[in-house]
Write a structure and sequence with these properties.
The chain is of the alpha/beta class. The protein has two domains: 2-162, Alpha/beta knot (3-Layer(aba) Sandwich), CATH 3.40.1280.10; 171-250, tRNA(m1g37)methyltransferase, domain 2 (Trp Operon Repressor, Chain A, Orthogonal Bundle), CATH 1.10.1270. It is 32% helix and 16% strand. The strands form three sheets. A five-stranded parallel β-sheet has the order 2-1-6-5-8, sandwiched between helices. Helix 8 packs across helix 9. The radius of gyration is 23 Å and the shape is elongated. The chain starts with a strand and ends in an 11-residue tail after the last helix. 24% of the residues are buried.
Length: 261
């Protein structure tokens, strides 16, 4: 999978691409990330990428011309193929696991990183094929969102993580062969030591009883989702056992339900 990132700060991505999952994905050939300096697509000696907004108001707006030139140059590399173009924007659809999975089936993506007060609307209307936001908050530019989109997408590519089961068990994961994603927050995890400052690992996890461990993890995932993101439960297929557990939680809202220990 190839990402073409259009930005005025290509150096921003230096450390991000030199560590962790993105570095491994590039080294293994699962992903290619190409950085394009938007200023290289200007035609004045000051390499101007922004200007004052028509109608007045604060801030500066990215000009349409350099962005169109950058994307059209990229499209010219393979004119026979459709090239999806994503504008990172607060007005875009929210990045979710489902969106990341959708993107992961695309061979190549262009990511446009905005800055300043925004981007000339003609880019959104006539160039971008999609707009994506990583949340309802304000950032100074699209570089961090671009990095988030790339990591969320690349980790879904087969072979990138090495352990596919780990990916399937993530919060919002999609188990292999399932028709629907499990949609729950992940269950709690523990490691050595079994006791730390008088806080003990639940006995069931030390029992070696795989069925009880499976049941405990399912219940803890249900409970965590019920407490922190109850809106997600409407999207999750629940077994009769799940429904009984959630009913017990609703009947004991004042105290945590510990279940199997």
């Amino acid at each position: 999978m190839t990402f073409d990132v259009v930005t005025i700060f290509p150096e921003f991505f230096g450390s991000i691409l030199e560590h962790g999952l993105l570095k491994r994905a590039m080294a293994s050939g699962h992903a290619s990330i190409r950085l394009h300096d938007l200023r290289d697509f200007t035609d004045d000696r000051h390499r101007t990428v922004d200007d004052r907004p028509f109608g007045g108001g604060p801030g500066m707006v990215f000009k349409a011309e350099p962005i169109f030139r950058a994307v059209e140059a990229l499209r010219g590399e393979a004119p026979e193929k459709t090239l999806p173009v994503i504008l990172l924007s607060p007005q875009g659809r929210l990045l979710t696991q489902a969106v990341a999975e959708e993107l992961s089936h695309t061979a190549r993506l262009v990511l446009i990183c905005g800055r300043y007060e925004g981007v000339d609307e003609r880019v959104a209307e006539n160039l971008a094929t999609d707009e994506i936001s990583i949340g309802d908050f304000v950032l100074s530019g699209g570089e961090l969102p671009a990095a988030v989109v790339m990591e969320a997408t690349i980790r879904l590519l087969p072979g990138v993580l090495g352990n596919e089961e780990s990916r399937e068990q993530d919060s919002f994961g999609f188990p292999a062969g399932a028709e629907v994603r499990h949609g729950l927050l992940d269950c709690p995890h523990y490691t050595r030591p079994a006791e730390f400052r008088d806080w003990k690992v639940p006995d069931v996890l030390l029992s070696g009883n795989h069925e009880q461990i499976r049941q405990w993890r399912r219940r803890r995932a249900l409970e965590k989702t019920w407490r922190r993101r109850p809106d997600l439960l409407a999207q999750v297929p629940l077994s009769e056992e799940d429904s009984r557990w959630l009913e017990s939680l609703n009947n004991a809202k004042s105290e945590p339900v510990t279940g199997l220990g």
